[in-house]
Amino acid sequence: MHIGFLGLGNMGGPMARNLLKAGHRLSVYDPSATAVAGLAEAGAQPADSPAAVARAGVEAIITMLPAAAQVRQVYLGDDGLLAHVPAGVLLIDSSTIDPMSAREVAAAAARNGNPMVDAPVSGGTVGAAAATLTFMVGGSEAQFQQAQPILSAMGRNIVHCGASGNGQVAKVANNMLLGISMIGVAEAMSLGVALGMDAKVLAGVINSSSGRCWSSEVNNPFPGVLENGPASRGYSGGFGTDLMLKDLGLASEAAKQVRQPVILGALAQQLYQASSLRGQGALDFSAIIRLYRPEDAT
Ligand code: NAD
């Protein structure tokens, strides 16, 4: 299949490579010449604008962009995708953006005669490279069926979450919970150790008891508990604090629109904001534990 791909960053780059590995032909665009050159070397056809991708004879286009502003610009801009793409071409946006913007862009695509799904991911850069991402897909059943074979070259779990925008709904709800649960684990681990417990023993108890969760088991924030986790290498790598902040911002924005209280989500947002202000924005979000254990801050 001939596919267009826009946004070849930390996530999009490896995702596009996996499409090439699966035998698809790619036309790619990114404002970063280095990003485009890397994909061209791997066998993709470079394009010099979104319009050029739209007119390259592609059957589907995938976007993996930083935020809603870029998604709007790339799809709805005067020289954007919708102004140039032929009707019938499937559009897939895998960027993490707010559900309302996703629905707005998909509605504009529908008026243009283009089926469009929102398909944000979880699994991070490791999942992007290994083609083990989870895709949360919003769109009609027919659109999901059309997108599924393409997405399965880049991910392991492709979940239909319901109508347009619901992929983003699932993503913001999950990441808000993740942000909250990490703070809970950081607080509980810090308390237990301050009261005299060994961190590894405490983590072992939590992970075989009712407090167990991904943040305690797979990404425990306490240094030394998981030999290969971000906490044991100064919180480098992993899922950045500023990316978590972005997702919590999306959750509270979306919540405001339906007047839904997100009390812990808003508190978590403020705590990650404080963590970012301390210079931890690029560190794994589990570095939030340093708010409880200042002696760890180096
Ligand atoms: P990134 O900043 O590494 O990559 C974004 C890419 O988009 C860059 O190469 C940039 O040059 C390109 N871009 C910017 N404007 C563009 C435009 N107008 N047209 C085409 N390309 C443009 O970001 P990332 O880490 O790859 O994240 C992409 C999306 O995936 C974000 O929405 C992010 O929230 C989400 N996400 C990231 C992770 C992660 O762990 N990094 C995990 C899950 C979801």
From TrEMBL:
Question: Which reactions is this enzyme annotated as catalysing?
Answer: 3-hydroxy-2-methylpropanoate + NAD(+) = 2-methyl-3-oxopropanoate + NADH + H(+)
Q: What class of enzyme is it?
A: oxidoreductase
Under the heading Gene3D superfamilies, the entry gives: N-(1-d-carboxylethyl)-l-norvaline Dehydrogenase, domain 2, NAD(P)-binding Rossmann-like Domain
- Biochemical pathway: Amino-acid degradation; L-valine degradation
One annotated GO molecular function: NAD binding
Domain 6-phosphogluconate dehydrogenase NADP-binding, by residue range, is 3-162
- Enzyme Commission number(s) from the entry: 1.1.1.31
Alphabetically, which GO biological process terms does the record hold? L-valine catabolic process
Write the record's keywords in alphabetical order, separated by commas. Branched-chain amino acid catabolism, NAD, Oxidoreductase
InterPro entries according to UniProt: 3-OH-isobutyrate_DH-rel_CS, 6-PGluconate_DH-like_C_sf, 6PGD_dom2, 6PGDH_NADP-bd, HIBADH, HIBADH-like_NADP-bd, HIBADH-related, NAD(P)-bd_dom_sf
The residues annotated as the active site are K171
Top-level taxon of origin: Bacteria
- Where does the record place the 3-hydroxyisobutyrate dehydrogenase-like NAD-binding domain? 165-292
Is Oxidoreductase tagged as a keyword? Answer: yes
Under NCBIfam families, the record lists: HIBADH (TIGR01692)
The text of the family note is: Belongs to the HIBADH-related family.
Which protein, by its recorded name, is this? Answer: 3-hydroxyisobutyrate dehydrogenase
**Species name:** Pseudomonas flexibilis
